[in-house]
Amino acid sequence: MSGPPIHLDPAFIASPDALLEWLRSAVTWDERMRARKTASFGVPYDYSQIAYEAVPIPPELEVLCGRIEATLGFRPNNCLLNHYADGASSMGFHSDDIAALAPGTGVAIVSVGATRSIAYRSKADSSLRFHYPLSHGSLLYMSDAVQREWLHAIPKAEGVGERISLTFRAILK
């Protein structure tokens, strides 16, 4: 069996250094989660038992929403950010809640900072596993089919530096 039907563009952002610097300086991070810091822009979003209120999407992220729409065919109305301070910050195997997403959409992830792997494990056969590098400036898209059939995780990675993932969704209001 082949891996999950993802879309991966390793060079989606032309100048990822500028985006990383903007995120470092402009974002006020929520520290309620132990494993990593988070922030949310756009429509309200409930994530991992934390409720994020509506916050306007800044122009720097609206540009990415437009690029995602041109590439994937849907315009996100929420961007949830996960800040991984180093390789000890991780996320266990899970699948995202797709019930709250607009039909025919999924989750688009833009990664900046250190390259980290995203791991996939089949829900039907846990021995089926795949890893893909999320490089600085990359875009990964997971459709609702990927969420139904696969679990994904960001494993720990020794000696790796800071990474910020920007997860874009079209949430039903």
How are the strands of the largest sheet arranged? Answer: 1-10-7-12-5-2
Low-confidence stretches: none
Please tell me the total number of domains: 1
Proportion in helices: 10-25%
Number of strands: 12
Tell me the β content: 35-45%
* Quaternary structure state of the chains depicted: single chain
Largest sheet: 6 strands, antiparallel
Which CATH architecture would you pick?
A: Sandwich
Topology order in helix (H) and strand (E) letters: EHEEEHEEEEEEHEE
Mind telling me the CATH class?
Mainly Beta
Structural class, from helix and strand content? alpha+beta
CATH superfamily descriptor: Alpha-ketoglutarate-dependent dioxygenase AlkB-like
Radius of gyration using CA atoms only = 15 Å
Number of helices: 3
Mean pLDDT: 94
The separation of the N and C termini measures 37 Å
Global morphology: globular
Q: Please name the CATH topology.
A: Jelly Rolls
Keywords: Dioxygenase, Oxidoreductase
Organism: Variovorax guangxiensis
Domain Fe2OG dioxygenase: 75-172
Pfam families: 2OG-FeII_Oxy_2
Tell me about this structure.
Residues 75-172 form the Fe2OG dioxygenase domain. The chain is of the alpha+beta class. It has a single domain (7-169), classed as Sandwich (Jelly Rolls). Helix content is 18%, strand content 36%. It contains three helices and twelve strands; from the N terminus they run E-H-E-E-E-H-E-E-E-E-E-E-H-E-E. The strands form three sheets. The protein has a six-stranded antiparallel beta sheet. The longest helix is centred in the middle third of the chain and has 14 residues, at 59-72. The protein is globular and about 40 Å long.
